Amino acid sequence: MSSIAENLQAVARAIVAAARNAGREPREIRLLAVSKTFGADAVIEAMAAGQTAFGENYLQEALDKMAELGRIAPELQPEWHFIGPIQSNKTRLIAEHFAWVHSVDRFKIAQRLSDQRPSHLPPLNICLQVNISGEASKSGATPEEVPALAQQVALLPGLKLRGLMAIPEPAEDEAAQRAPFRQLRELAEALRAQGIAIDTLSMGMSADMAAAIAEGATMVRIGTAIFGKRDYAN
Ligand SMILES: *Cc1c(COP(=O)(O)O)cnc(C)c1O
């Protein structure tokens, strides 16, 4: 089995290759290491290999991990990104403990995060999650809702609107993977044309990273390819 450090190197190489193929600069693409279901030890190992940003889906698990890291490695200051579904009674803890939230899909949640962001912290970086492939079961604002939502969120003082995020349906071949990512990029371009300053496209996971980079991803969220398969029994 390969180590987290080796996996991080392999992912970094794959990012460079995908960027070059797309005629893009590799440094335009940031790697978010999705550490859900893995412990503080895995975060420490990844940080020793130079990784700084970590994504978490489940609030309680993330808070426990942060507390453990604070005990065993208080010198480490990871940048935490919340990427999971948000219930409104969880917004205060998210506003207090994270630097980024990628999964805002309605104004009420954004308003609470803004109100609850501690004033000694910089504004919370926000991506709006978009339900780009249109399945009823998933979270995310519809593409039609996004322009008005973006206008409103951009005005909230505790937040900084950074861009859009999507989790498309799994697809086998790269052409099929690229279609929803292209839609997300075009939606971001439409927002910019309306004067909304955003710089982030959070898209691409272990199985579809190259397709996302080909369509303009600026942040890829990678779990399995770095930490290995998740075991939800733990
Ligand atoms: C789990 C998760 C990821 C990472 O997925 P992998 O396939 O393990 O790379 C990325 N984004 C979100 C929102 C996730 O929930």
TrEMBL record:
The keyword Acyltransferase belongs to this UniProt entry's keyword annotation: no
Cofactor: pyridoxal 5'-phosphate
Entry keywords, A to Z: Pyridoxal phosphate
Gene Ontology terms, MF aspect: pyridoxal phosphate binding
Modified residues (N6-(pyridoxal phosphate)lysine): K36
Alanine racemase N-terminal domain residues: 8-230
Record PROSITE patterns: UPF0001
Keyword Repeat annotated: no
Record Gene3D superfamilies: Alanine racemase
Coiled-coil regions, chain positions: none
InterPro entries reported for this sequence: Ala_racemase_N, PLP-binding_barrel, PyrdxlP_homeostasis
Family: Belongs to the pyridoxal phosphate-binding protein YggS/PROSC family.
NCBIfam families named in the record: YggS family pyridoxal phosphate-dependent enzyme (TIGR00044)
Function according to Swiss-Prot or TrEMBL: Pyridoxal 5'-phosphate (PLP)-binding protein, which is involved in PLP homeostasis.
Name by which UniProt lists this protein: Pyridoxal phosphate homeostasis protein
Provenance organism: Noviherbaspirillum pedocola
